[in-house]
């Protein structure tokens, strides 16, 4: 088992580059099929979703527009519950099919906040995608349209996800080693 140390914590390998890649290809194909002949505006959520979105959008073969919104809700390994806007969305979403792309849905509060904020832009429809989903931590009722992996309620990092700022550049996903 491969362990890495980030700040003071140890993490173990959880999802390989290969398994992430395969799943991202499947999601891209599914989105391509579902939106065939339609228009799609993809909104990536910074910072965490930047790698997932970069890989996912290259597996979608219909024309798409892409923009970003930035929010922050986490400190250390706990969701703060307070969501801060870090980057404003600069896009006209009126009447469009919007796909919100997140790295992970944990308690669900960030995505919930994003859905209501994006609704104010009067899109035709909002769809949601998240590479990772922690069903045991989820506290809302909305459903996610595209989920890469359902994972246990343990802190993860890599492939865009950080622990206090570090780990986003790891090409695969690691899980906190309970010590
Ligand atoms: P939620 O609002 O509780 O659903 O948390 C969602 C946000 O918190 C995500 O967009 C991530 O940026 C961050 N987050 C949640 N769980 C993890 C994790 O296990 N590792 C790293 N970041 C996480
Ligand atoms: Mg995020």
What does this structure look like?
By secondary structure, the protein is an alpha/beta fold. The chain has a single domain (21-30, 38-72, 85-176), classed as Rossmann fold. The protein is 21% helix and 39% strand. It is built from three helices and ten strands. It has helices at 17-34, 50-57, 109-119; strands at residues 3-6, 9-15, 40-46, 64-75, 78-87, 97-105, 125-133, 146-150, 156-157, 173-176. The protein has a six-stranded mixed β-sheet, with helices on both faces. Helix 1 (17-34) crosses helix 2 (50-57). The longest helix has 18 residues, at 17-34. The mean pLDDT is 95. The site of magnesium ion has 4 residues, from strand 6.
List the helices and strands and how they pair.
Blueprint: E1 3-6, E2 9-15, H1 17-34, E3 40-46, H2 50-57, E4 64-75, E5 78-87, E6 97-105, H3 109-119, E7 125-133, E8 146-150, E9 156-157, E10 173-176
Parallel strand pairs: 3-4, 3-6, 6-7, 7-8
Antiparallel strand pairs: 1-2, 2-10, 4-5, 9-10
Helix pairs in contact: 1-2
Bound molecules: inosinic acid and magnesium ion.
Residues 48, 73-74, 79, 102-111, 155-157, 161 line the site of inosinic acid.
